[in-house]
Amino acid sequence: CTDAASYTDSSDDETSPRDKQQKNSKGNGDFCIKNIKQADFGRREIEIAEQEMPALMALRKRAQGEKPLAGAKVVGCTHITAQTAVLMETLSALGAQCRWAACNIYSTQNEVAAALAEGGFSVFAWKGESEDDFWWCIDRCVNVEGWQPNMILDDGGDLTHWIYKKYPNMFKKIKGIVEESVTGVHRLYQLSKAGKLCVPAMNVNDSVTKQKFDNLYCCRESILDGLKRTTDVMFGGKQVVVCGYGEVGKGCCAALKAMGSIVYVTEIDPICALQACMDGFRLVKLNEVIRQVDIVITCTGNKNVVVREYLDRMKNGCIVCNMGHSNTEIDVASLRTPELTWERVRSQVDHVIWPDGKRIVLLAEGRLLNLSCSTVPTFVLSITATTQALALIELYNAPEGRYKQDVYLLPKKMDEYVASLHLPTFDAHLTELSDEQAKYLGLNKNGPFKPNYYRYENTSKTTSAPA
Amino acid sequence: CTDAASYTDSSDDETSPRDKQQKNSKGNGDFCIKNIKQADFGRREIEIAEQEMPALMALRKRAQGEKPLAGAKVVGCTHITAQTAVLMETLSALGAQCRWAACNIYSTQNEVAAALAEGGFSVFAWKGESEDDFWWCIDRCVNVEGWQPNMILDDGGDLTHWIYKKYPNMFKKIKGIVEESVTGVHRLYQLSKAGKLCVPAMNVNDSVTKQKFDNLYCCRESILDGLKRTTDVMFGGKQVVVCGYGEVGKGCCAALKAMGSIVYVTEIDPICALQACMDGFRLVKLNEVIRQVDIVITCTGNKNVVVREYLDRMKNGCIVCNMGHSNTEIDVASLRTPELTWERVRSQVDHVIWPDGKRIVLLAEGRLLNLSCSTVPTFVLSITATTQALALIELYNAPEGRYKQDVYLLPKKMDEYVASLHLPTFDAHLTELSDEQAKYLGLNKNGPFKPNYYRYENTSKTTSAPA
Amino acid sequence: CTDAASYTDSSDDETSPRDKQQKNSKGNGDFCIKNIKQADFGRREIEIAEQEMPALMALRKRAQGEKPLAGAKVVGCTHITAQTAVLMETLSALGAQCRWAACNIYSTQNEVAAALAEGGFSVFAWKGESEDDFWWCIDRCVNVEGWQPNMILDDGGDLTHWIYKKYPNMFKKIKGIVEESVTGVHRLYQLSKAGKLCVPAMNVNDSVTKQKFDNLYCCRESILDGLKRTTDVMFGGKQVVVCGYGEVGKGCCAALKAMGSIVYVTEIDPICALQACMDGFRLVKLNEVIRQVDIVITCTGNKNVVVREYLDRMKNGCIVCNMGHSNTEIDVASLRTPELTWERVRSQVDHVIWPDGKRIVLLAEGRLLNLSCSTVPTFVLSITATTQALALIELYNAPEGRYKQDVYLLPKKMDEYVASLHLPTFDAHLTELSDEQAKYLGLNKNGPFKPNYYRYENTSKTTSAPA
Amino acid sequence: CTDAASYTDSSDDETSPRDKQQKNSKGNGDFCIKNIKQADFGRREIEIAEQEMPALMALRKRAQGEKPLAGAKVVGCTHITAQTAVLMETLSALGAQCRWAACNIYSTQNEVAAALAEGGFSVFAWKGESEDDFWWCIDRCVNVEGWQPNMILDDGGDLTHWIYKKYPNMFKKIKGIVEESVTGVHRLYQLSKAGKLCVPAMNVNDSVTKQKFDNLYCCRESILDGLKRTTDVMFGGKQVVVCGYGEVGKGCCAALKAMGSIVYVTEIDPICALQACMDGFRLVKLNEVIRQVDIVITCTGNKNVVVREYLDRMKNGCIVCNMGHSNTEIDVASLRTPELTWERVRSQVDHVIWPDGKRIVLLAEGRLLNLSCSTVPTFVLSITATTQALALIELYNAPEGRYKQDVYLLPKKMDEYVASLHLPTFDAHLTELSDEQAKYLGLNKNGPFKPNYYRYENTSKTTSAPA
Question: Which residues bind NAD(+) (chains A, B, C, D) (predicted)?
Fold first, then answer.
C-alpha cells in the first residue's frame, strides 16, 4: 500500500524529538518535530496540495479584508498532513492563532510538520510517537503560559478529553468545539446527554456534503483501488457479496457491478433491502452464497457479521475485507486458533490456511480497507477541511445565544456553501433562481434551497409503531 | 398513450348513472355506477391486480383472526381502479365498512366500480363525471342516514374539504385522516398551521418507501417509456438536458445515460449540483446547451424553467417534456402566440412550428409526462395502497393521546414493514440481527433499524447561517 | 402496439385498387394504389421522415451535379413507408427511374403510396393485398412495354425470384441486385453456390454499420420498449434470463441490467459465454433458473430453446418473448393443447393458463418482439436506406469486371462512408489523419481505416481443430 | 508501481550468474540463474499461481494418459514468471523437454527461475541481464550438444531471429513456431511476405479470447488501477478525453464513465466514431476539449496524437498517459526542451513544468501505462499460456501438409476450447445443443459454433470503393 508519508527521510537519527533542540531559521523554538531540515521538501508537498484544495484558497481570498477569525486561538488535534497544513495556513490567513498536535501516532508527515514549524506554527507531532509522547504533545499545545485557546478543532475527541480531564476551567473561555470523527461525535453526544457538555459543539462529521464524499463517492473508487493494490484481482465475472447496503455498501456495489462483478447483498433493514433489489442486486442471507463467492466485503457498522462459521465455509482463495467503520465486522479473533496457519504475503495481506490447504485472503486484518490500503483523494480531504474552517468561523462569530451547550450540525446553508466552493473544480455552472421563481418556491435566492421543514417533519413527529 | 380505462365498454348508453336505477344481483342499490353488467369483467381485472399486490394479500391473511379494523367506517375518495379495489376489499377483510367516491372525474374504471358494487360496496363513481356529479358522489358517501364515518382516506383533499365545509360536526367521531397526495398534504399542513386541523392526519405521501418508488425508481423507467411511446426517439447518442437533480432528475439521468444519451444537468442547489458532477454529468446553465440538445426534460417543481426565450433557441426537432410535479415548468402559455402553428401529430404530441419552419415536439402540453404518456406499474401502486392500509390501522388503533391534532409521518417502523411485505416479490431474504448484534447496535431486532435520532438531529438544531 | 400505418383512413371503400381507375392530378395513371386523395397527408409524412434522414438528403445535395444514377432503371420491392419514399425520391434525384412494389402485403402506408404516385412514381402497392395481388403488383413493375430494369433493389428476394422465374432474359440487361434481408441474402448465396447467379449481387444486410444498428443498438432500446408497451412490467429487481449472448442478447442484457434487473445468460458458444461472465452475468443452463425468473427472452436464432417442459416449470406471471430472428425459438406450438387455456388480454399479449391457474404471459405469439410490439427508429432505417442507395451507385458504376456473378459485401470504405454521413446527427467531429500519421499507419487518409487484412487473416487460414 | 519481482532478495551478491557455479540439489548444472537457494520461495509462488491457472492444470490432468507432446523439444523465450513456470511444467507434464531464456532483461523473477532449475529445467535467465547476457542466454538454450529443438515458443521474435541468424539449419527439424507478441507476429508476417518463413507459425496474439482479455476486459480495469496507483486521482466528475475508440479505448471509456467521469472521444474511423456516439460519448477533435480536460489518454496505435501544441494548451494539473501499443502516441520528445522543467515526483510519475508554473502530470514517460504501473491479473496470463500450450500441441501433432510455411491463427475451435477451460473459474455452465438443434443450425455439437464463412465472407470479397 502506498504510504502517504513515504517521502520521509528514513535515515533520520533515532534521537527522540523531545530530546532535541528545536529551532527554526528565525530562532523560534515553540514546537517539537522530527527534523526542521525537511521544511523545504514539506513546503513543496503543501504547495501541491494547495492546487487541489481550491475551496480553502478561495476562502483565503474572500476573507482577505475581514479576517473572520481575528482573535481566535485555535488548538487543534488532527492528522498532520499536507492537507491539514493548507487548512492551518488558511485559518491563520483568516486571523487565527493555531497550536497543533497529531491525533494519531503514525500519521504525521514529518516534512510537513517541519514546514509548518519553519512557517511559525507551534506544531507538536512526529511519525512514530509513543503513547506517552502523544499526550505530551497534546499537553504542550494547551498548557502554555500566556496563551489560552478559545476554539477547539478535534478529530477523535482526545484533545477535548484531555482538556476536560486536566484543564476544565479552560472551557470558560472556549467558544466551541468542532469535531470531525464518528468517535469524537459519539463522545460529544454522550457528554451532552449526561449534561456535561459545557460549550457548543459542531458535528461536522454528519454534514451532507462530507457524508456523501466520505461514503458513497469515496468508497465507490476506493473499494476497487484497495482490492487491486493488495490482490491484483480481476473484477470481471467475480462473485462478490457485500454485507450492508448503506451509503458505503451502495458505493461498493455500484463500482463492482460496473466492473463486471456479480454482486449479492445482505441487509437487515427492509427499506435498504428493497433499494438493493430495485438497484439490481440479489438480496440474500450470507449463508446462501458464502460457499460460492470470490470476495466478501463488510459495510455494516455491525460486529461479527462474518464469523468463523462462514470463514470455514468460504472457498479456496476467497478474499475477505472490511469497508465499514467497525473493526469487528469480521471476527478476525476467531481465526487465531492453532489449526490455522497465517502467512503474511504482502503488506496488509494475510493468507489464512486451513488444515486441508484451503486459504482465504484476509486484507488489513479486518480493519478498514480504504484507510489501510488505498489513499484518500485530496478532493475529499478538501471538503472536510473546508467544512471544518466554516464551522470554526460559524461558532466563533455566532451571536450570544444562537448556540447552547449542545451538539449541532452545520447549518444547511453552510453545507451548501462548502459544496458551492467545490463546483469550480468541475467547471460546473450553477443556475440562479429568478426573483419570481424564488417567490414561487418560497426560497431565498441564496439558499438554503431545501426547505428546513422538509426533512425534520419527515421524522420528528414519528412515534413508535403499534405492538 | 395507453389508457388505464381502455377496457370500458364505449357503447354504453348516454343516460347519466344518476338517472338510472341501480341494483346489484342481491338487490342492493346503495351505489351509483355506470353499468352493473360489467361486474364480471371488472372482477377479472381485480383478480389480475391481486396477483401483483402480494403485500395486501399478505395483510389479509395475517389479519384473518384479529380484524384490526373491526368497527372502522372508512369513507374514501381516490382513483377507482383495480388496484384500489384490492385495497378496499382488503380493508373490508380487516373488518372495515367502506363507502367510496372518485377523486378524479376521468379516472374511474367503470367495470371495476361495477364489480365493487356487485360485491356490496357503496361506490359512487363513473368515468366522465361532471363537476356537479363529482361533488354529488362525494356527498352520497358521507351524507347517509344511520352511518357515520370514523376514518377518512383521501387523495387530493377534496373529501376532507367537503366534510369541513358541509359536515364539520362529523369530525367528532373521526379518528383520523390518511392523505396520499402532495396537494392534500399541503392543505393539511396549512390547516394545522392555522390551528384548524381537528383530528390527527397521516401524511403517507412522504413515507420513505413511497417516495423512493414514486420518484427515483418509477421515473427511471417511465422517462424512457413516456418518450418512446410518444416519439419513438432513439436514445443512443442523443444530447439531453435534465433540469433539476432531485430524485426525479436522478432517475431520468441514470436511465438516459444507461441508454447512451449524453446528459447535461442544471441545478440551483449546490449540494445536488455536486452530486450531479460526481455522478458524471456536466453541470450547465440552460442557455449554454439549449441550442445543441435534442431533448429537454424538466424535473424541478419550479415554474418557468423553460421559457419562450429558450424555446425560441432550440434546434429543429427538439423534444420538450416535463417530469416534475408542477405543470408550469415549461412556459407553454408563451407558445400560444399567433406566429406559431400548433399541429397535433399524435395523442399527447404537438408540433409547435416557427415561421422559419423549425418545429419543436411538445409532449403532454407540458403536463407530467409519466402520468399522461406511460402507465404506473402495479407494484408502485401496491406500495402506496399498503401504506394507506397500515396508516388506517395505526390511526384507528392508536391509544388515546398518541396522536394529537397534527400531521404525522408514518412511523419509520411501519415504513419498514411496508418494505418488508414487498421483499418476497423479489425472492429477497432479509438478514436478522443476532441478540448480541442488536445489543451492540442498540437496536430492537424487529426494527426500526435506523435510529430515530439519526435524521432528526441532522437538521432540527440547524439554525440560519451567519449573514 | 403502435401501428406505423395508423394514420390511414379506415373509412376507405372496399373496392379493390385493381378495379379502380387510377389517375393522379397530372393525368398519369401508371400506378395502382388505394386512394390518390391521401397524397397530401402522405407528403407531410415524407417531409417529417426527411428531417430524420439527413444522410440521404446529403447524398441528394452532393450528387446534384453528377447524377451517378443517370440512366439507371431501378425496380424495387420493399416495405412502402415514408422512409422508403425518401429513398426513392433520392434515387430519382440521383438520376434513376423507379418502379416499385411492396415486399409485404400489410406494411404499405397507403397515404405514402399516394404521395409517391402523385409525384410521378409508378407504385403498385396497398395495405392488405391478397397473395394474388402481391404477385400482380410485382409483375406490373417489371412487365411493362418499352421499359426494362437494369438494377434490382429487393427485400426478401421475391422480386428477384419472380424475374428468375418469369423473365430470365431480363438479367442480360441487369447490372446488379441489391438485397437487404437475411432471407433474400440466403437465397442469393444458394443461387451462387448452385452456379445460377447470373449478375453481381450486393449483400447490404451484413454491412458493419447496419448490423450494429439493427442488432446491438436497436435491441438495447427496443427490448425495454416492447416489454413496457405490452405488459407495463417494472424492470427493477426483476429476474430475467436471456438465452443467447450474440449482438442481440448483448443489447438486451445491457439494457435490462441498467434498469435494475438481475440478468442470467445461457449460451452454447464458450467464447460468448466467457464474454457474458466478464460483463457481469451469471452463465447458467435454462433449467437452473427457469423456476425463479420473471422474464424469459430468447435471442439465439436457434429453434426449440424454450420448450414445453420449461414453460411448464415457469412461475405464475412469467413473461416469455422472443427477440431472435427465428420464430421457433419458443415452442409455441406445444402450448396449443387442450388442457391449457389461452386468453388474449391485449393486442400481442396472450395469457396461457394452466389447469392449476398458473398463467404465463406470451408476447407476440413468440414472433420477433421488436417488430411486433415496438417501432423501429427512423435513424436505423436511415442507415439501411443510405446503404442501399450507395450499393446501387456502386454496382451501377463499377467498371466492367470489378464484380463477377457472385454475392458481395459493401466495400468497407462505403460502409465507413455511410457511418460518416450519419455523424452530423450527433454533432460528432471526426479527426483527420495527418500525412505523417497516415504514412506511419500505412493508411489512406480517406480510409478504409481498418486494414483489409485485419479481419480476413483472422479466420481465412483457420483450419479444423485436431480430433 | 507494484513490482512483480519485488520479493527478490536485493541483498544478493553482485557476482554475475555467468561466473557462478550453478548446481541444483540433484547435482544438475545445465542452467544459469541468480541463486538456487531461492528455489523454495519460488516454488511457493508457483503453487499460488497454479491456483489461478485452472485451465493449465486441467490440461495436465486430461493429458495424463496420452502425452500429446511426447518427443517435443521446446525452446522458449518469454518473461520468466510464476505463470510461465506453470506453463513450462505443464508442457513437461504433457511430454515435452524444455529449454528457456528470458525475453526481457528485467522481467525475470529470480526465485521462480531458481525453482525451475531446482526442478530440472534448463533455464538461463536472471533479473538485470546485460544486452550481452541476453543473447548469451538465448544461445545457451539452443546451442547445446546432443539436443536440438523441434518447437519454438517465442515472445517478441528474438529467439526466432537468433536461430535464423546463427543456426538456420536448425529449422529443418523444427515443426513450428508459436509467437505471442504483436512485434513478433509482425516480424513473422514480414518473413512470410518475403518468402523467407521456412516453417509454419502460429500467431496466438490474435486469437479472439486473448484479444478480448488483453484489450477490452483487461484495460477496463487497468486504466483505473494505473491512474490510481500513480496519481490517487478521484475519477468522479473529472473530464477525460480518450483518443481512439478501438477495443482498448472502449474499455477505458466504459470504466471511466462508470466511475463518474465525463468522457470525450476522438476517432479517425467513422464506424468506431458512430459506435462512440451510440455508447454515449461526445465525439470531438482533440483541440476542442484540450483546454478543459483533466485527463488525456491515448489508445490509438498511432503516433504523435498528443503533440506539443496540445501539451502547451492543457490546463494545470492535467494528467497525460498512454494505453496504446505505440510509445510514440504522446510526443514526449517534444517536452525535452530547456524551458520546461521535469520533476520526478514518484516512480513513473513526472511533473513537467512550464515557465508560468503550469504543470502537467506525465505517466510512465508516455509508455504503455498498464504494463508500467499496474499488474496484469493471473487470469489474463492464464488465457495466454493456455493458448500457447494448445498452439504447440496443434502444430506438433498436425498431419503433414495441414500447415504450410505461413502464419496461421489458432483454429476457431481451439480458441473456443481455451475459453471453455476458463469457464469453471466463474462457475459458468454452458448449454449443449440438442442433436435436433445442431442439425437445424448446421453446426457440430462440439463447435466451432460460429460458422467459418461468417467473418471471412464479411470481408474477403470486399473491393476498393469507387473513386
Answer: 246-251, 267, 370
- How many Å lie between the alpha carbon of A368 and the closest alpha carbon of chain B? 18
> What is the Cα–Cα distance from B339 to B336, expressed in whole angstroms?
9
Q: The cell 338487490 sits on which residue?
A: B27
pLDDT at B293: 98
| B392 residue type, one letter | L
Provide the residue ranges of all domains of chain C, joining segments of one domain with +.
18-206+399-418, 217-373
Question: Which range is least confidently modeled, A414-428, C60-74, D138-152?
Answer: C60-74
**Residue A195 Rama label (left phi>0; alpha psi -120 to 50; beta):** left
H-helix or E-strand containing B153? strand B151-154
User: C446 CA to chain D: closest CA distance, Å?
Assistant: 9
D251 known ligand binder: yes
Q: Which of D64, D44, D140 is nearest to D99 (CA)?
A: D140
Q: Tell the burial category of C11 from Cβ atoms under 10 Å away from its Cβ (0-12, 13-18, 19+).
A: exposed
DSSP secondary structure letters along B225-288 = HHHHHHH----TT-EEEEE--SHHHHHHHHHHHHTT-EEEEE-S-HHHHHHHHHTT-EE--HHH
Of the candidates C387, C382, C371, C389, the one whose C-alpha atom is nearest the C-alpha of residue C107 is C371
Distant-in-sequence, close-in-space partners of C39: CB < 8 Å, separation ≥ 6: C24, C111, C114, C115, C117, C118, C119
Residues of A in contact with C255 (CB under 8 A): none
Please determine, for residue C458, whether its predicted confidence score (pLDDT) is greater than 50.
no
pLDDT band at A12 (very low <50, low <70, confident <90, very high): low
The Cα B319–Cα B338 span in angstroms is: 21
The reported pTM is: 0.90
Please tell me whether residue D385 adopts helix, strand or coil conformation.
helix
Contact C106, C404 (CB under 8 A): no
If you measure CA to CA, which chain B residue comes closest to C2?
A: B229
| Three-state secondary structure call for residue A262 | strand
Torsion of CA D169, D170, D176, D179, to 10 degrees: -100
Give the three cell numbers for residue D409.
491463427
Amino acid at B342: W
Is D210 within any annotated ligand binding site?
yes
Nearest CA to CA, how far is B95 from chain C (Å)? 28
Between CA D250 and CA D254, with CA D253 as vertex, the angle to 5 degrees is 85
Check A440 against B209: CB less than 8 A apart.
no
Q: How many angstroms separate the CA atoms of B394 and B397, rounded?
A: 5
* Structure confidence at residue B363 (pLDDT): 96
Task: Report the distance separating Cα B281 and Cα B283, nearest Å.
Answer: 6
Domains A18-206+399-418 and A217-373 equal at CATH topology level: yes
Grid cell 439507371 is found at C72
How do strand A73-78 and strand C407-409 relate by DSSP bridges? unpaired
Query: What gap in Å lies between CA A426 and CA A52, rounded to an integer?
Result: 12
Question: What 3-state class would DSSP assign to C151?
Answer: strand
Tell me the β-bridge partners of A97: A73
Judged by DSSP in three states, D124 sits in: strand
C320 DSSP 8-state letter:
E
Touching A: which chains, 3+ CB pairs < 8 A? B, C, D
Q: Which of D230, D232, D253 to mutate to test the interface with A (most CBs of A within 10 A)?
A: D232
Q: Which CATH class is domain A217-373?
A: alpha beta
What is the rounded CA–CA span in Å between residue D236 and residue B280? Answer: 6
Asked if A132 contacts A119 with a C-beta cutoff of 8 angstroms, the reply is no
Beta-bridged to residue C176, according to DSSP, are: C151
Q: Which amino acid is at C100?
A: W
Residue D271 near chain C (CB below 8 Å): yes
pLDDT tens per residue, range D129-144: 999 999 999 999 999 9
- 3-class DSSP assignment, residue A217: helix
The three three-digit cell numbers of residue C164, written as one number: 428468375
Decide if domain C18-206+399-418 falls under CATH 3.40.50.1480. yes
More confident residue, C240 or B377: C240
Segment holding B392, helix H or strand E? helix B378-397
